[in-house]
Amino acid sequence: MKEMSLFLTLFILAATPSICKGQPKKTCKVVPKNEYIEVGSDTEIVCQTSCIPGKIYWTLNKRRIDESQSSNSSHAVLSLRNFTLQNATLQCLNADTLQALGGTIIRTYSKPSNISCILHHKNQFKDSSPDLFTCNWEHRIKPSPDINYTVFASLSHESQQEICESHVTNCTTTSERISLFDNITITVRAKAAAWEAESDPREFCPDHILKIIRPKLTVKTLSDHVLVSVSARSRAAFLTQCHCEVKYSKVVDEGPVSEWVHNNTLKKGHVNETIEEFDSCSNYTFSVRCALVEAPWSDWSEKETVLTKLNKRDFKLRLWRKVAEPEENRARKVHAMWTEIPSTCRGTFTYTVKQTPYKEHVMGVNDTDTLCGSSTCAVYVNQDAHRIQLTVLHNGALLVVDSVYVPAVGESLPQVTDIQTSTLEGDILVSWKASIEPVTGYMIHWTHGGNLYHWKESNYTHTTLSGLLDKQPYNITVTPLFDDKTGQSTEALQICSRVGDPGNVMIHVQSKDKSALVSWNVTSQGACSGAVVAYTVFYRIQKGPQLNVTVNGTEQFISLKDLIPDTQYSVHVNATALTGTTQSRETLFKTKRFDPELITVVSVCGSIVILLVLSLGLCCAVQWKKFKEKPVPNPGLSSLALWPASSHQEGTCPFQPFSNPSESLCDRVYTGETQQAPTSPLAPGCDGNSASVQTEEYIDPATFSVPEDSVEPAETWHPSSPDDSTALLPSENSPYRSQTSAESSASRSSKQCKRVPVKQTEKITPVIVYVTLDMLEQHQGRGGK
To answer: Torsion-angle region of residue 467: left (phi > 0), alpha (psi -120 to 50) or beta?
Structure first.
């Protein structure tokens, strides 16, 4: 911005002659140019306005200011009072045309201030006269190599003399020119290329600026306190009054470090400080610093770390117990617990617990002692009331004794009610209603998993449990306390120290062409995972906008609609609980090109049609093959009839070649083979001609005999029309296909035949005739002719 303002000013100044062109004697400009003034001082800026008529106005950093002058005279003056800006751009403008007539930049500088000086020692272990002199000051302008600082010193009734130079706001030199007995006056001068400023002089007393060397520290630990000894190394501390600060802090692995400071006054260069506020068997660091009155503090001494001893006076066991439910033998397990003595405490510690029935304890009867560990112990008692007593020995000497009451089973004792629990930033807040009887306090104990117990005492009906494991369930019990007894315990509902995020989300996608079924399940991360209140499904195509749909926490699937076929999508699911959100891994899936259900339906229908066509073709092929390859009938299975004797009634055919007497000879089937290959004459036909059929001769003397002299007149068959021959072909009229009634055969024979007398001169040989299936085809072909 500074460069821009300067460029704008130069541009305006360069353009000013063009405004006044043709009037060389009437110019417009602003003076002085690029002025440096001290912060808080006054200055005046002049704008020559002889080149224009009318009024002008001023701007400061492009903001119009109220002060303006008329152009009645040849110039306008702007007065700046108590100017404090670091830099400013001023412009003079025509009020009518708003044209800039000229401008300038004003920069401010300040003089050094707040000077402080000290006399100090280079060697912090050896006492001697101070050999270094250092001064510091402040300057509102940012120090740079362009500014040179010079420090001047003058003693009483002496002129100033230069003692050091610097380009920063401090300067150190030897103290050869400094007297330890006279006051000294210091002045700092700051000089740049365009300006120079000198600070106000400041006078110092040597005793007020003398920084003594750091003292020596000795720390000794005792059983009930820590003794800190401070010794001064500077002779000045022995000559004048001196005060010291002792700082100590406990060494901890994690968390903030608490520091304590004790003040004391050195007497004859020595002082002892007693510290009683400390934790037993803990590491503490100590350091000390001292100073003359009104003089600056010395450097801190080297830190010394010590291990404190066990403080018998302040050590408390805080003995407590957890009573389990009675077992089958009615014995109760009592889990005794107390404050563990730090392992850093040196020496040998012995812990013994004895359980005494309460009545015998009152009477002074002791029970057997049980040797226990360092912080817990388990003993068994019956259903009666008992008192558990813990004794701790340190190096064989009694350190502390404490006891706690165990009520009897079913003993009527007060107890708290309506325990309420809640969580806040990892802590558990517990509150309850007080018991009816007055109490001395309440004992609260809590556990995670039942292995490690924590407990604390409170005088109020509420407390805060801190230092808990994160996202873990806790069981909390509250017990009222009395003077020498304890009431009945009341357990609260299990509560988590903090409810975490929902469990891990695993998703599965089944895609179609325009939709996809997204399902998921949540695997809990622990007992304190947050309950899901909503699921949000996010999906998108590559380089496309992200879409989402939300369902409630009871749903675990959703169908995404209106998707683009044959397109790759990415999807993930967010499970949201009141305590946070868990996101599944991103899954890629691709929609189908066609609807899988349509393809399935078409495939099934096509398969059925193909099967039907194949089945029909196969059936036709089988039937055709059977038709083409039909075997010759077995004559033994045919129904045959004897030919009638000569005494047969008139009106029937002269012979019956089949076993059924009702069948007529006229019912025989004629084929083409019978005409082409005639055999021996069998009998004259109905028309007087011999009928030729393809036959095989077979004689059965047991079933057939004819008298030698019998003569039977033959009957001749006359078809009434060409259609009559084909009418005889149906299977129901063929003796080889089925047998018909005698009446129908006789009536047909009487209508189609007439008797023709035939002369029989020789024996009639019985003939057995059968027909093949080919005869039907040939006869049908003949009938067609």
So the answer is: left
Fold held by 216-307 = Immunoglobulin-like (2.60.40)
Residues 292-320: tens digit of each pLDDT: 888 999 999 999 999 998 888 777 888 99
Contacts 24+ apart (CB under 8 A), 54-58: 54/94, 54/95, 54/96, 55/95, 55/96, 56/92, 56/93, 56/94, 56/95, 56/101, 57/92, 57/93, 57/95, 58/90, 58/91, 58/92, 58/93
Q: Are 309 and 281 in contact (CB under 8 A)?
A: yes
The letter for the amino acid at 446 is W
Segment 115-132 shows an average pLDDT of 87
pTM of this prediction? 0.50
The answer to whether 415 touches 488, Cβ cutoff 8 Å, is: yes
Q: Are 119 and 209 in contact (CB under 8 A)?
A: yes
Residues 5, 91: Cα–Cα separation, whole Å: 10
Q: Name the architecture of domain 2-109.
A: Sandwich (2.60)
Distance CA 398, CA 394 (A): 6
3-state secondary structure labels for all residues of 467-509: CCCCCCEEEEEEEEECCCCECCCEECCCEECCCECCCEEEEEE
Look-up of token digits 């398969």: 607
pLDDT tens for residues 217-262?
A: 999 998 888 999 998 888 777 777 888 999 999 988 776 677 888 8
Which residues have C-beta within 8 Å of that of residue 389, sequence separation ≥ 6?
A: 353, 354, 355, 356, 401, 402, 403
Exposed e or buried b per residue across 411-443, where buried means at least 16 C-beta atoms within 10 angstroms of its C-beta: eebbebeebebebeeeebebbbeebeeebeebb
Q: Which CATH architecture has domain 320-406?
A: Sandwich (2.60)
CA–centroid distance for 544 within its chain: 24
Stretch (H or E) spanning 2: helix 2-19
Give me the architecture of the 113-209 domain, per CATH: Sandwich (2.60)
For residue 32, give the amino acid letter: P
Amino acid at 498: R
545 Cβ contact partners less than 8 Å away, ≥ 6 residues apart? none
DSSP structure string for 27-88: -EEEES-SEEEETTEEEEEEEEETTS-SBEEEEETTEE-S---BTTSSEEEEEEEEE--SEE
**CB-CB contact of 541 with 557 (8 Å):** no
DSSP letter assigned to residue 267: B
The strand pairing partners of 756, in sequence order, are: 714
CATH node for 504-594: 2.60.40.10
pLDDT digits (tens, 9 = 90+) for 79-108: 888 888 888 898 888 888 888 888 899 888
Q: Where do we find the tokens 């400080």?
A: 273
- Beta strands at 417-424 and 452-458: parallel, antiparallel or unpaired: unpaired
Nearest-angstrom CA–CA distance, 208 and 219: 30
Q: Where are the domains of the chain?
A: 2-109, 113-209, 216-307, 320-406, 417-496, 504-594, 598-629, 633-785
Residues 558, 537: Cα–Cα separation, whole Å: 8
**CATH class (in words) of the domain with range 417-496:** mainly beta
- The 3-state DSSP class for residue 534 equals strand
Q: Say whether 504-594 and 113-209 share the same fold.
A: yes
Secondary structure letter of residue 598 according to DSSP: H
Max CA separation in the chain (angstroms): 200
Evaluate whether 379 touches 370 at the Cβ level (below 8 Å): yes
The beta-strand segments (E) located in 146-282 are: 148-155, 161-166, 170-174, 184-191, 196-198, 202-204, 216-221, 226-231, 242-250, 259-266, 270-275
Joined together, the tokens standing for residue 332 give 């109760």
Q: What are the Cα distances from residue 606, in Å, to 177, 592, 614? A: 116, 21, 12
